[in-house]
Every structure is written in C-alpha cells, then in structure tokens.
Amino acid sequence: MNADTLARIRLVVLGLAGAICASYALLAVLLNTPQPFTVWGPAAAGITASVVIWVSAFVAGERNTGIAMDELYKREWGLSIQFSYWFGIVLFILAAVAVAKGMISQSTGVAAFGTAYGASLLLAFCIISLRS
Predict the structure, then answer these.
(1) What is the DSSP letter of 39?
(2) Are 101 and 64 contacting, i.e. CB atoms less than 8 angstroms apart?
(3) CA distance 37 to 24
(4) CA-to-CA distance for 105 and 100, rounded, in angstroms?
(5) Fewer Cβ atoms within 10 Å of its own Cβ: the N or the C terminal residue of the chain?
(6) What is the pLDDT along the chain (132 residues), one digit of tens a residue?
(7) Contact, 11 vs 127, CB < 8 A?
(8) CA distance 128 to 65
C-alpha cells in the first residue's frame, strides 16, 4: 500500500464516521429524541475509523505512513480543529436557545449538538483535505 492509498482510506473512513455522527445529530433534532438510533452508532463509527486507519498505516509501512502524515496533513488537521472549535461554540449556543425556547428537550440538545460537534471536526477535515 502506498501513501496515496493510505491518505484516501483515511479520508473515506473519517468522512463516513463524520456522516454517521452528523446524521445522528440531525435525526435527534428532527425527532426530538436523544437517541434517534443506537447510541453506540457514532462511537462505533469513530472506533472503526481509527482501527481501519491504524491497520492501514501498519500495512503501508513506516515510510509511506510518514509520507501520508506529512506537514500538509498536520496543517489540514490543525485548520479542522480551529474551525470545529468555533463551530462548536456556535452549536452549543444554538442548543441553549433551542432548549430554553422549548423546541427540544435538554437531553436531546446535549446528544444532538455534542455529536454534531464531533462530526464538525471530521467533516471539516474531509472538506479541507479535498480542497487541497
């Protein structure tokens, strides 16, 4: 496996995990339930993504992994963290307003916007990486 394949695998599995987390958050808000599907879904997606990336890096070897995790990757990840930090602050303000107005329950707000916060990091990385 080469470095390009490893980078593509990383992009796909992080994108899938982000999409699962985002769908959980969206369904929680739309259905006004803190558990629109199994609560282990987003966690399982994240753990699976990390295992797939780790195994792929192991198979690719130290040299190819170093190439795939270069300065550009670190810069893209850093930008994703910066974006998701501010996006998360906005999300939690929106959750507080929605809960205060009685639009959603408190438990739904915590589940939905907490999961959306995690999804924002993963999806932001994918979007930034695809733009590079």
Answers:
(1) T
(2) no
(3) 7
(4) 9
(5) C
(6) 898 999 999 999 999 999 999 999 999 999 999 998 988 999 999 999 999 999 999 999 999 999 998 889 999 999 999 999 999 999 989 999 999 999 999 999 989 998 999 999 999 999 999 987
(7) no
(8) 20
- Let me know the angle formed at the C-alpha of 81 by 75 and 83, rounded to the nearest 5 degrees: 105
Q: Which amino acid is at 21?
A: C
Q: Is 102 left (phi over 0), alpha (psi -120 to 50) or beta?
A: left
DSSP assigned state of 33: -
| C-alpha neighbours within 13 Å on the C-beta side of residue 37 | 13
Residues 26, 17: Cα–Cα separation, whole Å: 14
Residue 77 to residue 79: CA distance in whole angstroms: 5
Cβ atoms 19, 127 nearer than 8 A: no
The three-class DSSP label of residue 132 is coil
pTM confidence score? 0.89
